[in-house]
């Protein structure tokens, strides 16, 4: 190793290019729920990130030939787990950037560790509070809760047209913003919100809440829960108690990994998302076809946003000419448009990208089916 290091220094001193094999790999750390109630999100992250790394390395790597290496740590889907994962990635993994992120409470906790210390590109978590902090090296690929809620609530109010709505969801920052936006939209439309029920993270028996809501006979039940295993159990209990005339699930959280374990209990539910493989647009066709060929399954939003996050990090480092001058890399991210399967990504002053389209979806026969596509504002 010492001899190899001296060779690199000697070659650089003579003005010669260091071969890719002799240069250190650029390591990107990913904190994701590889175990626990949100583990299905972690599986999406791994596939999307590995797919991105394969593409980046095939086209020459990072910073003129250095290999991109992904390092994973399990955040367990908890804030404490997220903090521990990020700390380990930085101190032991010696990564040059952090990405991943599926649950908002986890990413909020992680950002207290990464702030002013390392570049962090949150791929999937949606809470507005993440990028409301004003951290200069923190970016967000997925839509915020407010952006998704605005599009989805418009469909509820104008197309579904319930007279009364009941809400239930876990007491988290993510769900608080979902509820605040829902209240605002329903009030503006003159629709009554007849119930708000919240529960803690350990809840797995929802029958008392559902029974109470059933007694109010609402036109629409709106559920907000970002943990797939728990949400599947919740909808099974809804079905056991007879269901509701219309049902909706908070946008940006429903995946095949949530639908499948529900054993059909989620059929009929409306939700929304920023991406559908069945309608990828011209820019997304190659991504969808390549992903299907690689994994024999259609890509979902979770696969897409981590693919975009890894590519933005790698391309920004190359364009900035550094893997560790985070002020320079962050400025490059803000100053440029980045190609992606959705078209060009641009980041606003808060570090947020935005999706060009929003898709209204309904679950039919265990699959997400497109109902409508609307332009994002």
TrEMBL record:
Database matches in Gene3D superfamilies: 3.40.50.2300
Keyword Transport: yes
GO biological process, one term: amino acid transport
Alphabetized SUPFAM superfamilies for the sequence: Periplasmic binding protein-like I (SSF53822)
Matching InterPro entries: BCAA_transport, Leu-bd, Leu_Ile_Val-bd, Peripla_BP_I
Signal listed as a keyword: yes
UniProt xrefs under Pfam families: Peripla_BP_6
Position of the signal peptide: 1-22
Bilayer-spanning residue ranges: none
Domain Leucine-binding protein: from-to ranges: 26-366
UniProt KW keywords: Amino-acid transport, Signal, Transport
Family: Belongs to the leucine-binding protein family.
UniProt protein name: Branched chain amino acid ABC transporter substrate-binding protein
Lineage, opening ranks: Bacteria, Pseudomonadati, Pseudomonadota, Alphaproteobacteria, Hyphomicrobiales
């Amino acid at each position: 190793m010492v001899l190899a290091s001296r060779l690199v220094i000697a070659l650089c001193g003579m003005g010669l290019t260091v071969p890719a094999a002799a240069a250190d790999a650029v390591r990107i750390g990913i904190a994701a729920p590889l175990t626990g109630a949100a583990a299905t999100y972690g599986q999406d992250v791994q596939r999307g990130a590995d797919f991105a790394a394969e593409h980046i390395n095939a086209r020459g790597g990072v910073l003129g030939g250095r290999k991109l290496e992904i390092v994973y740590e399990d955040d367990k889907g908890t804030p404490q787990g997220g903090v521990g994962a990020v700390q380990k990635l930085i101190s032991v993994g010696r990564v040059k950037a952090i990405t991943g992120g599926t649950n908002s409470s986890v990413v909020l906790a992680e950002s207290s560790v990464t702030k002013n210390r390392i570049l962090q590109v949150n791929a999937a978590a949606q809470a507005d509070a993440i990028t409301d902090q004003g951290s200069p090296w923190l970016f967000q690929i997925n839509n915020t809760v407010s952006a998704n809620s605005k599009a989805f609530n418009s469909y509820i109010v104008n197309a579904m047209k319930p007279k009364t709505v009941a809400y239930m969801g876990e007491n988290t920052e993510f769900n608080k913003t979902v509820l605040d936006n829902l209240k605002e939209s329903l009030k503006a439309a003159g629709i009554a919100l007849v119930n708000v029920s919240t529960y803690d993270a350990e809840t797995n028996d929802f029958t008392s809440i559902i029974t109470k809501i059933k007694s109010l006979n609402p036109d629409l039940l709106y559920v907000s829960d970002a943990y797939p295993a728990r949400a599947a159990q919740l909808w099974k209990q809804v079905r056991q108690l007879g269901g509701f005339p219309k049902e909706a699930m908070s946008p940006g959280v429903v995946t095949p990994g949530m639908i499948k374990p529900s054993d059909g209990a989620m059929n009929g539910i409306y939700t929304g998302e920023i991406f559908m493989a069945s309608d990828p647009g011209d820019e997304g066709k190659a991504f969808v076809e390549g992903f299907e060929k690689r994994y024999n399954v259609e890509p979902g939003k979770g696969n897409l946003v981590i693919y975009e996050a890894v590519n933005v990090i790698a391309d920004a480092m190359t364009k900035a000419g550094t893997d560790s001058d985070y002020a320079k890399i962050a400025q490059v991210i803000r100053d440029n448009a980045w190609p992606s399967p959705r078209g060009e990504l641009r980041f606003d002053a808060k570090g947020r990208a935005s999706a060009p389209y929003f898709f209204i979806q309904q679950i039919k026969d265990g699959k997400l089916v497109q109902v409508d596509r609307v332009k994002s504002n």
